[in-house]
Amino acid sequence: MMPFQQGGGFQFGQTQQPPGFQPAFPPIPSGAQIQTPGTGTTGINPPGMLPIEQSYIENILRLNKGRLVTVYMAFEGSTEWNSKVFRGIIEAAGRDHLILSDPETGYRYLLPMIYFNYAVFEEEIEYEYPLGGFAPGLTTTQPR
């Protein structure tokens, strides 16, 4: 454990390294562009895959709107149940929620994404944007 130093010389965010320490990777300057492995340049995405900055679960669920899905969720600390399975048609997906409709009961479920574990589709998952471009309504903002 590193001793706490009062006064000058040590600032928040700095670490003290032992003499002769060599980092495994060079430091990345602030604002630098990072290359994606296998592409050789920034901003190019592998064919048949969502752009890296747009492949959030909510976007994949939106691309599969109208499809039947089984969603597995875990609720930590619940005394009644800590895991639950929901089956229904994807109606909408947001950054923090998923809306399913159960075709058998007609119920609609608003599910917080914080409890989302995984989803199972009985058919092929849509993972590409229509016409290879950006689809309206898909999230492009950075995660919080």
| Total number of helices | 1
Instruction: Indicate the multimeric state.
Output: single chain
> How many β-strand runs?
5
Shape: flat
Q: What's the overall average pLDDT, rounded?
A: 75
The percentage of residues in β strands lies in 15-25%
Q: Ranges with pLDDT <50 over ≥5 residues?
A: 10-14, 38-42
What letter string, H or E per element, gives the SSE order?
A: HEEEEE
Largest sheet: 5 strands, antiparallel
CA distance, first residue to last residue:
30 Å
- What is the C-alpha radius of gyration, as a whole number of Å? 22 Å
Proportion of helical residues:
under 10%
In CATH terms, what is the architecture of the domain at 52-123? Roll
What is the name of the CATH topology of the domain at 52-123?
SH3 type barrels
CATH C-level of the domain at 52-123? Mainly Beta
* Backbone structural class: mainly beta
Placed side by side, the strands forming the largest sheet appear as: 4-3-2-1-5
Biased composition (Low complexity): 36-47
Region (Disordered): 1-47
Pfam families: Spore_GerQ
InterPro entries: Spore_coat_GerQ
Quick overview:
The chain is 5% helix and 24% strand. The chain is built from 1 helix and 5 strands. The protein has a 5-stranded antiparallel sheet with strand order 4-3-2-1-5.
